[in-house]
Amino acid sequence: MNYLTIKQKLLLVMVIPFMGLLYFSISSLSIKNEKLQNINKFEKYLEFTKRASLLIHELQKERGLSAGFIGSSGKTFNKQLNEQIKLSDIRYSELSKFIKENKQFLNQYINSLIDEKKLNNFRKIVQTLNISNLKSMEFFSNEIKKLLYSISKITLLSDEFKISTQSLGFLNLLEAKEYAGQERAIVNHIFSSEKFNNKIFINLSTLNSKFNTHMGLFKKTSDKKSLIYFNNNFNTKKIQKFTQMQNFISTKIYKNEIISKLKAVSGYGGLIHNFKNFLLRGDIKYKDKFLEGYKTMENLIIEYKKYIITPEEVELLNFVKTTMGEYNGYIIDVQKAHKSNIKDIFKVDKKVKVDDVPAINALNILETKIIGVDSNEWFVLATNRIETLKIVENKLLDKLFIMKEDRKSLLEKSLIYQTLFSILLLIVVVILFLIIYKDIVKKLELLQNGLISFLSFVTKKEKNITY
Asked: CA 64 to CA 68: how far, in whole Å?
């Protein structure tokens, strides 16, 4: 660096720190600006989430109504389903338009939107009733799952802890609402078709478990105000009534166990079998077995009635009890006949005219069906519960918008203040640099002139020294 003058070297020494300060100022501003861009992306994604969640909500209702329509073989929910399809289409159009307007940004986060043609073709199949409820459930649930997956990426777009935590609580509530929606659809199909089996019970138990898991996560990640709002909206008489109907379903498996025992006690291998044997053989052990079985039957019916039951169930149970009671009424006649002669036995045999087939059919109905429950009432109560969850969901989404706006405002102010501070600092540094540089250069010039004068005096080129 010997080829540089002292001024150049001095300039270099002072410029390097200035450039360093400039670099760090720009770097800091760049980080702030990047965070601001991220919050702008988050804002855009919140808008997508808002529209997507509205479409999910309507598709969930359409799924539930389709389940009832299929279960009732088109006898119920037809009008409601057609009206719901219109609402779903409105939400679909809103989301589709928003995605098209923001295609460049949203494409990297969204897998795919439901194909409109595919959706309409599926609806036509539902109208023909040429589809099982299982297939219907799978179609809607898969499409909803895709939308939920797209929404879940919202947590990747914010580096703010509070916003990310709130987003997580929001997502868990969305997931819980989806499982509640699946339950509404399955049970609506049960009440409409009056069909029930252990597989359905296991499925419902799984859904309920998943619902509780996500609700637990929602409560852990949500702030106190959100939880208070949730509790205030969820503790209502309608929710309590829904829970009663939910318990009616959940106890069906236990009632089925009782019916299974009733069938064993009352059927052709039980009471009827022992009565016939006593009638034909007169062996007292068959009488004792019959009376013992009859007492067991009465106890089982009492145990069944401890659960939540419908008037129709009571009627069927009483029918079984009355039929078996008719056999019980003939026991004394059979016993007397055996003590007299064989002719009396034949007389009693002819006298015994109990039609037990309807009683056996009643037990089969109680075991395989759920009767006496209004599917419309279930749908209204289940929908009220989901609408309540939707209210809380909207509240959380509104809060995310507020948190986003607060964060955005803070970043914008911070960016403005830091930009102004950086410019002011750089100006001050430049001014100080110029002042110091001029002062040093001036003193160096004076020193240079003094040295030249001194050397000239020494060499006697000058008579006087200039200072």
From this structure: 7
